[in-house]
């Protein structure tokens, strides 16, 4: 997918908007990073070594940035958001370690995954360690409400992972079932990351739920764009080789769209390659051609844009401010990655 000049400019503007959003909370994000590095430490040498590997792999810290921006939007002036943003990042990092083992992935953001370097056992156990660190940070915060929101999110994420395991190679999966899965697997943590920002500021239920709705819609949009990028982006942008989802037999929204719009010969192709994982040279190129023929990537991006619009609407209860604008800019950044 080659971006038009206008699309390139829009992507550049969106990227600048995200960097400006990060800059608003740069000092706090530095504190979050220090908490992360401190809490990764253990006398068991393999734990910090492996944890540092995935933390050093990069990433934009989108989820902790959301916690920090949400807390500032709601007027919180204490320091509770720091530990909770670190907890959010630990939950995210633990799920990445577990995901790479489940998916048997060799690369993440262009670097070897922990399981590619250390095998499967150590990343699973270190992921458990990071989950434990996250819960220690939640307990240290002292709020049962915060603990409830983040613990519930952790449980929902695990349910989403199991849902993905069950439906991963099933071309009979409905679009609604797929969206339910990514709402659990991906959007639940976005939702919780934003919601706790309102909780620490002791804001009314309306504002808490508005931020929760914003985070959930943003999380779904984020995942749908990832689905589109897997078949269409360059590796430098994607951080992994194109077609990983295809090779792993994952049935994502672009596939569901092409499957529904295709003829029986095309459906037989998807069943062979994704359900039975009987893949031959040239199959990925053919898959991408089918997605193009049926406008599946464009349809997925449009659906992501609908969720992005819902995320923007969710911020209506909040007056204009630089923090509200930053949250709006993050929506634009997440969508613009597709272009």
Name the helicity range.
over 70%
Distance between the termini: 8 Å
Shape: globular
Cα radius of gyration in angstroms: 20 Å
List its traits.
single chain; 339 residues; mainly alpha; Farnesyl Diphosphate Synthase; two-stranded antiparallel sheet
What's the arrangement of secondary structure elements?
Layout: H1 5-24, H2 26-39, H3 46-55, H4 62-73, H5 80-103, E1 107-108, E2 111-112, H6 114-118, H7 121-141, H8 144-167, H9 175-200, H10 205-232, H11 235-238, H12 244-247, H13 253-261, H14 264-275, H15 283-293, H16 296-314, H17 322-336
Antiparallel strand pairs: 1-2
Helix pairs in contact: 1-17, 2-5, 3-7, 4-5, 4-9, 4-17, 5-7, 5-8, 5-9, 7-8, 8-9, 9-10, 10-16, 13-16, 16-17
Brief digest:
With 339 residues, the protein is mainly α. It is 76% helix and 1% strand. The protein is built from 17 helices and two strands.
Report on this structure.
The protein has 339 residues and is mostly helical. The chain has a single domain, classed as Farnesyl Diphosphate Synthase (Orthogonal Bundle), CATH 1.10.600. 76% of the residues lie in helices and 1% in strands. It has helices at 5-24, 26-39, 46-55, 62-73, 80-103, 114-118, 121-141, 144-167, 175-200, 205-232, 235-238, 244-247, 253-261, 264-275, 283-293, 296-314, 322-336, and strands at 107-108, 111-112. The chain has a two-stranded antiparallel ribbon with strand order 1-2. Strand 1 and strand 2 form a beta hairpin. Helix 2 (26-39) crosses helix 5 (80-103), helix 3 crosses helix 7 (121-141) and helix 4 crosses helix 9. The model has no long low-confidence stretch (mean pLDDT 91).
């Amino acid at each position: 997918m080659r971006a038009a000049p206008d699309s390139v400019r829009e992507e550049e503007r969106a990227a600048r908007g995200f960097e400006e959003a990060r800059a608003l909370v740069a000092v706090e994000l530095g504190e979050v990073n220090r908490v992360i590095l401190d809490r990764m430490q253990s006398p068991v040498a393999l734990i910090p070594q492996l944890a540092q590997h995935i933390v050093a792999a990069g990433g934009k810290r989108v989820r902790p940035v959301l916690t920090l921006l949400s807390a500032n939007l709601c007027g919180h002036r204490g320091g509770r958001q720091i530990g909770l943003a670190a907890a959010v990042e630990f939950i995210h990092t633990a799920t990445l370690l577990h995901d790479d083992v489940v998916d048997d992935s060799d690369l993440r953001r262009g670097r070897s995954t922990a399981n590619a370097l250390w095998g499967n056992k150590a990343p699973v156990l270190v992921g458990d360690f990071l989950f434990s660190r996250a819960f220690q940070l939640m307990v240290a915060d002292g709020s049962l409400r915060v603990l409830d929101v983040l613990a519930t999110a952790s449980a929902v994420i695990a349910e989403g992972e199991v849902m993905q395991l069950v439906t991963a190679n099933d071309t009979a999966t409905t679009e609604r079932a797929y969206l339910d899965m990514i709402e659990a697997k991906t959007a639940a943590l976005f939702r919780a990351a934003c919601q706790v920002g309102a909780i620490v500021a002791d804001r009314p239920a309306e504002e808490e739920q508005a931020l929760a709705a914003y985070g959930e819609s943003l999380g779904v949009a984020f995942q749908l764009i990832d689905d589109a990028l897997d078949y269409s982006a360059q590796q430098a942008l994607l951080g992994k080789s194109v077609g990983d989802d295809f090779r792993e037999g994952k049935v994502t929204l672009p596939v569901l769209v092409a499957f529904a719009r295709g003829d029986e010969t095309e459906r037989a192709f998807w069943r062979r390659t994704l359900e039975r994982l009987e893949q031959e040279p040239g199959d990925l190129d053919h898959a991408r051609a089918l997605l193009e023929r049926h406008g599946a990537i464009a349809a997925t991006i449009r659906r992501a844009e609908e969720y992005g619009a819902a995320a923007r609407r969710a911020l209506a209860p909040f007056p204009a401010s630089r923090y509200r604008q930053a949250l709006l800019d993050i929506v634009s950044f997440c969508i613009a990655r597709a272009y």
